[in-house]
Design brief:
about 110 residues; alpha+beta; Beta-lactamase Inhibitory Protein, Chain:B, domain 1; four-stranded antiparallel β-sheet; elongated
Length: about 110
């Protein structure tokens, strides 16, 4: 049988894990009706599929790293967002995350 101290330690660890998971930022869950096609963009799909779905981005930013490249495609409109694409050497570029941009203040 487990000791009361062990049960308490397990409970504290479990509560900490739940709080950390709840507080961690998650990629936007692409459910915005004002952003056409965004709900069809899935993490893991190829960059070519994402571009066919969304069209050309308004802005592209690239970060070159060792043996890989991170690319951000920004889309503007009523609900601006950006998608992050990772291109590993020897593999097709794939969508890594979808993020909502905060609206610009007037």
């Amino acid at each position: 049988m487990a000791s009361p101290r062990g049960i308490r330690r397990f409970t504290v660890c479990l509560a900490t894990l739940v709080l950390l998971l709840a507080a961690s930022p998650r990629p936007y869950a692409a459910q915005d009706p004002e952003a056409p096609g965004l709900e069809r963009v899935k993490i893991g799909m190829t960059a070519a599929e994402a571009q066919r779905t969304l069209g050309p981005p308004a802005r592209i930013v690239r970060q070159i790293l060792y043996r890989r490249q991170l690319v951000q495609w920004t889309y503007e409109g009523k609900s601006p967002f950006w998608i992050e694409i990772e291109h590993l050497k020897g593999q097709d570029p794939r969508v890594r995350a979808v993020h909502r941009l905060s609206a610009a203040k007037p």
